[in-house]
Amino acid sequence: MNMQTSVSIAEKSPVPTGEEAASRAGESAVGRRRTPSREMVRTFLGDVAVPLGLYYGLRLAGVNQWLALVVSSVVPVVQLIRRLATERRVSGTTLFTLSLTACSAAVTLLTGDPRLLLARESYFTAILGLWMAGSVPTRRPFVYMATVKLLPDATAREWEARWEGSPGFRRTMRVMTGAWSAAFLLDSAARVVMAYTLPVDLVPVLSSALLVAMLVVVVRLGKAYGKRRLA
Fold first, then answer.
1. What is the mean pLDDT of residues 121-150?
2. CA of 225: how far to CAs of 5, 178, 183, 219, 231, in Å?
3. Which residues are within 8 A (CB) of 144 and not within 5 positions of it... i.e. 6 or more apart?
């Protein structure tokens, strides 16, 4: 799983901090075409399942590991281009992803080592974790911004009011953002270990499984923490 996928799934992983908000976030919002859960399924299929299937399909066809990794990494780039064409605007998150994509392309052109291509994902995951950490003291930490975008309009306005008027709410958003940051940094360290110690053909599926498992744990713990702190 590459850095585009990490950003996309993180954005689409709502982390509600109260029972009412959690239930509303999963509902279809008036005037919105897609639910968060449907978007996550689309992201998983387009950015995880298809690249993995392409990589292992190419390997079965006899393509070498480096070329199979390069070709399979093109799929998320196509998804990013489609997203830009659909949104017709460049948000801060999209600009961040584009910069990482450019760096990734440079690394790909400079090396023929499949293990370095696998390890590069850890570097970008680390950057994502550091980016989240950097948002903690800002006016809009990552968890708050990522979740508000997924809420129905009325609920989003409630969250904005709570953000302005409740120090406890702001503190909870920052603690949860810090937890997400730590999780991505741990994921980054694990990816480096896997890239240089495991058989190359095992790493793509194991790294994807690792990130999905990490996201599930962080989302569940975040919901439990939020309900306890903001009940």
1. 87
2. 26, 13, 15, 10, 10
3. 159, 163, 173, 177
Distance CA 67, CA 85 (A): 28
The arithmetic mean of pLDDT across residues 201-211, rounded, is 88
SS (H, E, C) the chain: CCHHHHHHHHHCCCCCCCHHHHHHHCCCCCCCCCCHHHHHHHHHHHHHHHHHHHHHHHHHCCCCHHHHHHHHCHHHHHHHHHHHHHHCCCCHHHHHHHHHHHHHHHHHHHCCCHHHHHHHHHHHHHHHHHHHHHHCCCCCCHHHHHHHCCCCHHHHHHHHHHHHHCHHHHHHHHHHHHHHHHHHHHHHHHHHHHHHHCCHHHHHHHHHHHHHHHHHHHHHHHHHHHHHHHC
Output the pLDDT for position 127. Answer: 85
In tens, the pLDDT along 149-174 reads: 878 888 888 889 989 988 988 999 99
d(CA 201, CA 33): 38
Checking if the pLDDT of 197 tops 80, the result is yes
Mean pLDDT value across the chain: 76
Backbone dihedral region for residue 149 (phi beyond 0: left; psi -120 to 50: alpha; all else: beta):
alpha
Terminal Cα distance for the chain, rounded: 35
How many angstroms separate the CA atoms of 220 and 39, rounded? Answer: 18
For the chain, domain boundaries? 3-230
The pLDDT value given to residue 198: 93
Task: Look up residue 147 and give its two tokens.
Answer: 């979740």
The first and second tokens of residue 23, run together, are 């239930």
